[in-house]
């Protein structure tokens, strides 16, 4: 069972990284919430079972109907946990029957879009942020700003907004991740450093010396380079999300520096293009650190136990905005559900503090609920010599400054692609950064006008 869970979390972690519209591979998601539906008398038993969690969204005689709960690739690894949710909720609401339907990840998008078009979506759905935006933009999901206003303040504000599209939130944040830093102290020592960088600026300052002294890269441009805009205080879109806002002097300066670093040989474009694995580069000691979700650190252990053994973990790197990206999985409710009240109550139940904490302990993820993240469980790795365990501690701490940086519009994938293509023209065709950003701005504005 442990092997199955571990493999599943690797899949989920890679999913957060490689799904461009939804995730940040250098970091992955964050959230913490305090759920007002939680029974305070049972908060000390959150890791034991889900059956003791109270739900104030309605008494047993107020809710009825069948609720189909669609999850993504969580069975069989988390069968006991999901069945516990089902049985606990049904015991509190005898008039409700919950049916769990687990769907393979590669089938979710087609299923959701097809069923959204026919008005036959599952009542409650586990969706990633991109799917939420696509379905929410089509009017297929319940507005949670309205239906779940009573629990809104229990979540970190930045994480709550993950399900936002066109000014409204259409999902409750479920499990999430943020980032930590795994680094090679031997490489740093050879370059004359006794600690890893704390900021991206410091990382780039250290990189030339590291490359010269060790032959390894320091900082590199990752496939999720678009998130460097919000991390450095450069918004993707204007306030009403109708036009691009990233064509700024600050963005020109940032890309100009990145072009200089590339010309100096400080990073390779194969990394940006996702043609080489950062886990492999780190395991081969070709890069001094890796900024990503701690749930992925153990990939290094699989590839090179010796390198993993000498690795340490530190806080995630910061840009000038001092913010981290978090991209949660979400729980949404179909707007055409025949059991809408029961479905909304179940969505709140799944995402309350007790149940979020219990799942975090099983699945090595973070609960985007304030009350849950305050549990001593998340402080256990602070003094650990194991990179993954300490990385979890730093990732949990990062929830305080985490927010979802994905633009709240349906065309987010196209926005990222326009930015990526423009940046590649800067590197490979020597296009002036200002011109490249202007062209990307025009392309994004066209997308938003469609």
From TrEMBL:
Biased composition (Acidic residues): 26-43
Compositionally skewed regions (Low complexity) per UniProt: 44-62
Signal peptide range: 1-23
UniProt entry keywords in alphabetical sequence: Signal
PANTHER family: ARABINOSE-BINDING PROTEIN-RELATED, DIACETYLCHITOBIOSE BINDING PROTEIN DASA
Organism the protein comes from: Terrihalobacillus insolitus
Listed name of the protein: Sugar ABC transporter substrate-binding protein
InterPro entries according to UniProt: Bact_solute-bd_prot1, SBP
Pfam family, one: SBP_bac_1
Region span, Disordered: 26-62
